[in-house]
Design brief:
transmembrane; about 400 residues; Growth Hormone, Chain: A; MFS_dom; transmembrane transporter activity; globular; 2 domains; mainly alpha
Length: about 400
């Protein structure tokens, strides 16, 4: 039974993810048609706004790899929460494209703080307080963020203009900040001693590099579906106008999946769980290739939501346990690889779709990358050596 303090800390962390990822990042997805209709934005501007947001996220991930001071991490984490809300609200106070670019970039920085610094700080707190060193509950905030933005978009898109909608998203984020800030523990008291000599550091460095390659493959599998799932759904007569519902289904699937993957990991081990998550992610892609019926697309969204969130949760939790003295740094290295995939893969698949008039070959290419990812994941397991897997605390 978890203590009241542990429940509050976990709740604060989850809410922070909802704010920094759900509000600051995912609110843009349902806002795209609203802004295009109201302002006549070109697809290039729409794409660039997404790209600069990813660029901000990647920049944040890269900066975090250079930070080891715990006090600075806590301050930047708190600043990231504020930035996520402010940058969202300000999107509704201007129609200047260059200011939008700046705001979306800053929003990406806030997302990296909430996700990476938040995950690292929580991992340190869990280890310090002899709790299970799992991040499934933490990453359920991603699924909740998807659900929140999908539902909120349907509620406000009729009565409010595009600029008012941005402000509403920001105000919802501000309201959520209150419990997130109030229940936040003193992370400064969670510093852990550094471990491992040079030989151990070299071995772990090889391990993390191979794991980065595997995570890059997972990033391709994640972003191609995230980018084109709604477009595929909208192209189906029976699902036209219901793309938001597909996105909602993916979010509903992702929300409890993190916790279920933690349970599976305890029972069967983290490597078996990762192999299964990668395989399921590949299956969700295959389903979009072989059958675009409503049932198949909906089921693909369910499998996709459950699998991608499991990969993210288990990968980052794994490196957090391997590098407990500074978990945010390896988490950021993995995320940087994941982010590179998010910037490259949609461009490649989008180009193939323009040339061929459909997404089939792009999806086959994505499926191939995920298959390679399973192989690289196995290499990472071998690089880890014959040592036993780190025990889950608690």
């Amino acid at each position: 039974m978890k203590t009241i303090e542990t429940i509050r800390v976990l709740a604060a962390s989850v809410i922070a993810v909802v704010v920094t990822v759900g509000i600051a990042r995912f609110s843009y997805t349902p806002m795209i048609p609203e802004m295009v209709e109201a302002l006549g934005l070109s697809q290039s501007v729409v794409g660039m706004l997404a790209t600069v947001n990813y660029a901000g996220y990647l920049t944040g991930a890269l900066l975090i790899t250079r930070i080891s001071d715990l006090d600075l991490k806590v301050k930047l984490y708190q600043l990231g929460l504020v930035v996520a809300v402010v940058s969202t609200v300000l999107m509704g106070f201007t129609s200047n494209v260059w200011l939008w670019f700046a705001l979306r970039f800053v929003s990406g920085l806030g997302t990296s703080a909430g996700m990476l610094l938040g995950a690292g700080l929580l991992m340190s707190w869990l280890i310090k307080n002899n709790e299970k060193s799992e991040l499934g509950v933490f990453f359920s905030g991603i699924g909740l963020g998807i659900v929140l933005t999908a539902v909120l978009a349907q509620l406000i898109k009729g009565p409010f203009s595009w600029d008012q909608q941005w402000v509403i998203y920001g105000l919802v984020g501000l309201a959520l900040l209150v419990p997130a800030w109030r229940w936040m523990p003193d992370y400064r008291a969670c510093a852990l001693p550094r471990t491992g000599g040079k030989a151990g550091s070299d071995e772990r460095s090889r391990f993390i590099v191979i794991l980065q390659l595997a995570y890059f493959c997972a990033g391709v599998g994640y972003v191609v579906t995230a980018t084109f799932l709604v477009a595929i759904a909208e192209s189906i007569p029976g699902l036209s106008g219901h793309g938001w519902l597909i996105w909602l289904v993916a979010g509903l699937s992702a929300t409890p999946a993190c916790w279920l993957w933690d349970v599976f990991t305890r029972r069967w081990g983290q490597w078996t769980a990762l192999y299964l998550a990668y395989t399921l992610n590949a299956v969700s892609i295959l389903m979009l290739i072989v059958d675009t019926s409503m049932v198949s697309v909906m089921l693909s969204a369910v499998v996709y939501g459950a699998s991608f969130i499991g990969i993210v949760s288990m990968m980052l939790a794994m490196v957090g346990r391997v590098f407990p003295e500074n978990p945010s740094r390896p988490m950021s290295r993995l995320t940087f690889s994941y982010g590179i995939a998010q910037m490259l893969a949609p461009a490649v698949v989008g180009y193939l779709a323009d040339v061929e008039g459909n997404y089939t070959n792009g999806l086959w290419l994505t499926l191939l990358v995920m298959a390679i990812g399973v192989g690289v994941l196995h290499l990472a397991r071998r690089a880890k050596g014959r040592e036993a897997e780190p025990a889950l605390s608690g």
